[in-house]
Design a protein that fits this description.
The protein is mostly helical. It is built from 19 helices and no strands. The longest helix is centred in the C-terminal third of the chain and has 55 residues.
């Protein structure tokens, strides 16, 4: 029977409770209470006999099934198991062959995981020891044991004879990723060099900095910060933080932009002269150098493996294609990397020159320096838009004010007409002008006939 998992109240604790009353009632008419209970029905419904039979059958089936033998570290087995499950359409032999021949069966994820969790000497020692014990019990036990090994253990045995497996997997991963990585590094190195050159060659930046310097010296006049001969670039994007006391919407950046627009409009061209700063500010100099260093190590790894393969060529499997796959790749990729390193060195020289020209410390990183100019250029252009919006608001306000005055004048004239019945001054002035023109025409004709006409005053 299935059990009801309740908590029993000890008999000594039921005194004075409802259970005491129930017990007294049941003891008085016990037979009457139980005659309505169908014990057979309850037993049929809640019996565990059927489940027990199922459990017995399941247990028997389990005994018949071959249980996988897992010997490898659980973490390694789990990670490799995921990759092998993805490759379940390929046999261990096909995977082994693709590694030996350096084919494209494995993607970068599989290569990385196989390299990271590559079988160690300890793994093989554990598997060999287990199989040896099985062999001692007879060939049949040995075969059954080998067949019952886990998927990871079977995979390890299939790739056992590939020489320097971990190094080979690492080189295959490099081959899949390094060319694209070098292209990205070369692009970033060029951007940094171009950004430095653009700032150094800008015709507008010297004028801009002179304006900032003179305006700033005026604002800082009479203080320790006044009479400056120059300033660090870090202040440029912070000019938006200085606000007018009278007009909180007017920042020093907005004022300076308006001043430059009206007096030195060509200076505003500096933003267009340094377009590469926007990309350069997003490049991490330390990460770029770290990636270049890693790329050099990767090339060195391939060089080492090629050297080993050439020295041990006679010992290699006839199907081994490492040298064929990597010889030309090494030459081409190394050339690309060497070119990238030269570009990076040139960019470093230009950037060092840039820092020196602007009086900055050599410790200032490119992403910091170019980030300053990126923020300043963005704020400078935003100031133009804010000033334009303010100008349009003032223009609309002036038009609205003029329209209100005109409506008031029309309303006043209309009121005067209604009160006096006279024609308005504007109408009278118009009649006088017409009359003058007409009289002028008559006068001219009379004078043409030699008649002198005197106009009444």
């Amino acid at each position: 029977m299935k059990l009801i998992n309740w908590t029993k109240i000890p008999p000594r604790q039921i005194q004075g409770t409802i259970w005491n009353e129930i017990e007294a009632k049941n003891s008085q008419s016990n037979s009457q209470q139980l005659e309505f209970i169908n014990f057979e029905e309850i037993e049929d419904l809640f019996s565990t006999q059927i489940e027990s039979k199922k459990e017995e059958r399941t247990e028997k089936n389990k005994k018949k099934e071959n249980v996988a033998i897992n010997l490898v570290d659980s973490k390694k087995a789990q990670n490799l198991g995921i990759i092998l499950n993805r490759l379940k359409s390929n046999s261990n032999y096909e995977i082994m062959e693709s590694i030996l021949k350096v084919e494209d069966l494995l993607d970068t994820v599989a290569l990385t995981q196989f390299w990271k969790f590559c079988p160690s000497a300890e793994d093989y020692e554990t598997i060999d020891s287990f199989l040896q014990k099985a062999k001692e019990e007879g060939d049949k036990v040995y075969e059954e044991t080998r067949n019952n090994l886990g998927a990871v253990e079977k995979f390890f045995l299939s790739v056992r004879n590939i020489p320097r497996l971990k190094e080979r997997l690492g080189c295959m991963n490099i081959k899949a990723n390094l060319p694209m990585k070098i292209l990205e590094l070369k692009k970033d190195a060029k951007i940094l060099g171009r950004a430095s050159s653009e700032i150094l060659q800008s015709q507008s930046i010297p004028s801009l900095l002179n304006i900032v310097l003179q305006l700033g010296n005026f604002v800082n006049g009479g203080t320790f910060r006044g009479s400056a001969s120059g300033f660090k670039m870090e202040i440029l994007p912070k000019l938006v933080e200085l606000k007018s006391i009278k007009n909180s919407s007017m920042t020093f950046m907005n004022y300076m932009r308006g001043f430059i627009d009206s007096k030195y409009p060509n200076t505003c061209k500096f933003v267009a002269e340094i377009p590469s700063i926007f990309q350069a500010s997003k490049i991490s100099f330390s990460a770029l150098n770290a990636d270049l260093k890693q790329a050099k190590e990767d090339i060195s790894s391939i060089e080492t493996e090629l050297k080993w393969v050439l020295e041990n060529e006679s010992k290699l499997d006839s199907e081994d294609r490492f040298e064929e796959a990597f010889s030309q790749f090494y030459v081409t990729t190394k050339e690309d990397l060497d070119e990238t390193l030269i570009i990076m060195e040139e960019s470093n020289i230009k950037y060092t020159e840039l820092l020196k020209k602007f009086g900055e410390e050599s410790s200032v990183l490119p992403e910091e320096f170019f980030g300053i100019w990126e923020k300043f250029a963005t704020a400078f252009e935003r100031a133009r838009m804010e000033l334009e919006r303010e100008r349009m608001r003032e223009e609309r306000a002036n038009k609205a004010a003029a329209l209100r005055v005109l409506k008031e004048m029309e309303k006043e004239n209309s009121k005067k007409k209604n009160e006096t019945g006279d024609r308005g001054e504007d109408d009278e002035l118009e009649d006088i002008i017409v009359e003058e023109e007409e009289e002028g025409g008559i006068m001219e004709k009379l004078r043409g006939q030699g008649i002198r006409v005197m106009r009444d005053s």
